[in-house]
Amino acid sequence: PRTLRHELARVEEGTAGWARCASLAFSYHVCTPLGERPHWWTDDALLAMSARVVRVLPEDASAWAMRGQVLSAQTFVGVGRGAPWLAGARSTEQLREAADCFGKAATLPPTLGSPHFDPQDLEAYRQECSRIADSRTAGGALATTWEPAPLQAAPLVAGHAGALDELTTQD
């Protein structure tokens, strides 16, 4: 039978079809058991893939929600579960970018054939990312159990300085 993994391999990388397939694959695999995830299910690969998906689909709510989830490592989504992959600690800048992504996703209409995200949930995620980033900026070390131990630095979207428009520039 055809799977999302097979479809993702069939579609030309960097196209809208590929980006939709990647977004659907992410939404599907985030809920599958660890042993059934594809070889590309790593923190670095998810960070890179989610950045490409939003560049290809800048008006797709699920693309922005996916990027926000990856940047925040889903640390607070589904309280207590943590990230469904081995993720490095997130920087304040990554959390601010995640907040921007969740905010953008909340303002866009759902895309036919894409996973649906409740705008109120997206706004709550945006606020939580901003709250965590703000608490770090205020000089107080945020002492909670949600942040995993650092593994390695994860890259931001090239050229990101906090404005959503900069997230959709060409490679």
Low-confidence sequence ranges: 142-171
Judged by helices, strands and strand pairing, the structural class is: mainly alpha
Quaternary form? single chain
The helix/strand series, from N terminus to C terminus, equals HHHHHH
Largest sheet: none
* Proportion in β-strands: under 5%
Per the principal axes of the C-alpha atoms, what is the gross shape?
A: globular
Average residue-wise pLDDT: 74
- Rg, nearest Å: 15 Å
Number of strands: 0
Distance between the amino and carboxyl termini:
35 Å
Contiguous helical run count: 6
Q: Helix coverage percent of residues?
A: 40-55%
Provide structural commentary.
It contains 6 helices and no strands. With 171 residues, the protein is mainly α.
Summarize the SSE layout with pairings.
Blueprint: H1 4-10, H2 16-29, H3 43-56, H4 61-72, H5 92-107, H6 119-137
List keywords for this structure.
0% strand, mainly alpha, 171 residues, globular
What's a concise summary of this model?
This protein has 171 residues and is mainly alpha-helical.
